[in-house]
Fold Trimeric intracellular cation channel family protein.
Amino acid sequence: MLYFQQMLGTAVFAITGLLAIQKVGVDLFGAVVLGIITAIGGGTIRDLLLDQPIFWIADFNYIWVALVTSLLAFFLTNRLHKRYQLLLYLDGFAAALFGLVATEKVMALQLGAPLAVMMGVLTSIGGGIARDVLAGRASLLMSREIYATPVLLGCTLYVLLRDTFPSIRIAGWIALILTSGFRFLAIYKGLQMPAIFSTRQR
Amino acid sequence: MLYFQQMLGTAVFAITGLLAIQKVGVDLFGAVVLGIITAIGGGTIRDLLLDQPIFWIADFNYIWVALVTSLLAFFLTNRLHKRYQLLLYLDGFAAALFGLVATEKVMALQLGAPLAVMMGVLTSIGGGIARDVLAGRASLLMSREIYATPVLLGCTLYVLLRDTFPSIRIAGWIALILTSGFRFLAIYKGLQMPAIFSTRQR
Amino acid sequence: MLYFQQMLGTAVFAITGLLAIQKVGVDLFGAVVLGIITAIGGGTIRDLLLDQPIFWIADFNYIWVALVTSLLAFFLTNRLHKRYQLLLYLDGFAAALFGLVATEKVMALQLGAPLAVMMGVLTSIGGGIARDVLAGRASLLMSREIYATPVLLGCTLYVLLRDTFPSIRIAGWIALILTSGFRFLAIYKGLQMPAIFSTRQR
């Protein structure tokens, strides 16, 4: 179930990654590479930093899913754009899922809650940032969109719930619902960072 | 022989790396750093991902070759530009060589043919992409030039030939000749990706 | 004492990192991430390449210091700008310190003086370069400012002194004073790379 969700998340990240760079003008090869990087980039940096085996070298299915989805997305761009709103919600769900799974991974390694939260956020947003840097776009670090904040709060919530709840599964579901929910709200309402939290206005 | 070829490839990558960023306007230090990164960047990322010792930490001669070549190239830029066409062909040969050597490295580690091909391509183009990102240039992922495709096909061919041929050396030579040949043709004819494989036209 | 200095250096890097990207227009989350990356990026790449435990995973205080300093710097930007000149000198000192500590780290691992100097420079400038790439700014590799050269010379001096001096502590202090001194001079006099060492004039 979790495995299936992660594969779905990988596919969604590859698609939204590809749609994000589509305006830049890119060829099949570059598009597929950027789709794959969006999907696996965050987890790759996490595993490198933790000195763990890279997850997609241990299980190449992640690459296959990202590769096939990117290929399909490349040729179905127009049709996917019509579903962009839906994809954005799926992307928010995938970001929450990847963040929480990474947080649990670090907690299971007993490396401490602060590192777990940090790695959760990194896993969630690292791929998209890597893609933006490679595509020469302003990365989401430069954006006022509320994208990383729900993941940050959700992973923090998770490490708090994890030790108080009888089951880490229930803690995970609660955190997943609240994290996705916050992101869904940000998409739906078009929420932006309050001006006091931005250097733009000064 | 292979060692000598790899050192030659390192030198060629350092030179073409330096010529690529020359228009950006860069100082000796930055130029040499970018030349070295072009030469060793791809293999470095490969070794990090595979959790192998970084090849140039194991054998610092790679750095010396890249360093000295970058220094020379910095002061001989004008003269080298007259040989740019020749350098482009040498660069194609080096890209093919590095890709195939990396593919064989992963095959020897028994990590599977798909990962081997992926690492071959990454080793081949990773350094140039890292250089472009650091220099603020549009990377070759954004370009319609046919650069990575020959390496992708060549490494795929190699893993297919490797298990059918009596000698991996012969398989390697065949793949090297065909990979370089495809790239040489792309340079000579100025081949570009067909429009159907590009998001530019849409 | 050295530990305290390194924490101070981390804080200074986080502040100057944040001030460097302030004009780009960035929100609290992005600003703090970029501040942290400036502070710990160079050492992180060093530890990844050397296959050593990442220093801030081993001791999370580095992250706390960078995090709190970045947060403070975000809200005190205007006040800090008035102290920019002082911060620039502190930054030069931190760059020298980090470079020399990294050089000693590699020397202690007996990986050879050339690698030690290379890792010293990388540790010193890696974080700032990573920040510039992520913020879409022209990195210091593209700049004519004399920033990396003092560290390069200082780390080289250190490996030379280290084996001739009775105490590595004295060698370290001499190298630290000379490295910072060269950088201070470059800031004070506004020194730039001589034109012969630049591709700009050609």
Q: What stands out?
A: The interface with chain A takes residues 48-51, 111-112, 114-115, 118, 129, 133, 138-144, 148-149, 152, 193, 197-200, 202 of chain B (CB under 8 Å).
